[in-house]
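STRUCTURE REQUEST FORM
Protein name: Queuine tRNA-ribosyltransferase
Source organism: Pigmentiphaga humi
Requested output: structure tokens
Priority: standard
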Amino acid sequence: MLAKRRSLKLNGIEVERTPLLVPSFSSKGFPDVHKIIASCSELIEGVTLISAYDLHYGKVQPPFDFPSLIFLDSGGYEASKDTELSDLGDRDHHPKDWTQEMYEDVLAKWWPSVPSVLISYDHPKARVGFAEQIERARTIAPGRTDVLRELLLKPEKESQTLLNVDNLLRYVYHLADFDIIGVTEKEIGNSLVDRMKNIAKLRRALTAAGIDSPIHVFGSLDTISTPMYFLAGADIFDGLTWLRFAFHEGLTIYKHNFGALQLGVMTKAHMVDARCWHQNYYYMNELQLEMRRFLASQDFGSFKYHGNMFRTALESALEALGDQ
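Status: completed
Returned output:
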């Protein structure tokens, strides 16, 4: 099987095990992100993700001492007009300047009280080839031994919307320099099966090269696609879907529908938001446990919802990969 429990170690000491579902925070679409973080800080006990862009522009304020592990995103999402697949596009976004020097300045001041993962710099107008992406990622926070490092792989040209996975695999041995390998959901394929196939292709290439680093899928955190990518060999999943929608009985639905189903039609919108965030966080924890139980049993019945669909999707991805 492609799915496996993998370890995140800092200086030889395990700080987390996969699979990991990571609640993320961003000012993009959430201008009051600092208030949302404050509301959720007593809720979140595990991992979380924040943006260096938001730190630089004062959208979020340290200290961040509530998570067990912090992913510090490099800010490419906030620096662009690009969207996640779950983005409703209901707020116009006007990105500000964001350079590698600005990111390095944030890193120089980044000394959290909990372990952290530094994600390599990217910018939609700074597309470079895979060799240069790898070399650029190697240079971040030089000399630091108190952090984990993640390479976020992006298309090599501005004109490309998808990763050229076959070209990427020419550099697979160079990926051993990083603790985590990241891709975005939108850029790893243009359908669920295609994304699963490409994740599986990357996972197999890593395994063949003797590399057991977790694969992180950015922008994927929901009730259906996340388990599918997990079965294909990915390990870490983050996104803003948990803030935009509600997770309910195996589905990802509009928050106001969740409010009507669970709280009553008279419930105020801000109360529905808060209830959804709490519900979604506990839902993610349970789904993460289901994924871990699957690793122990290899039984698709470990999933409370959609187990048969997940099996069929994996079979389809493997068939597309040429396994059947």
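Reviewer notes: The chain has one domain: 7-321. The first strand starts at residue 7 and ends at 10.
Form closed.
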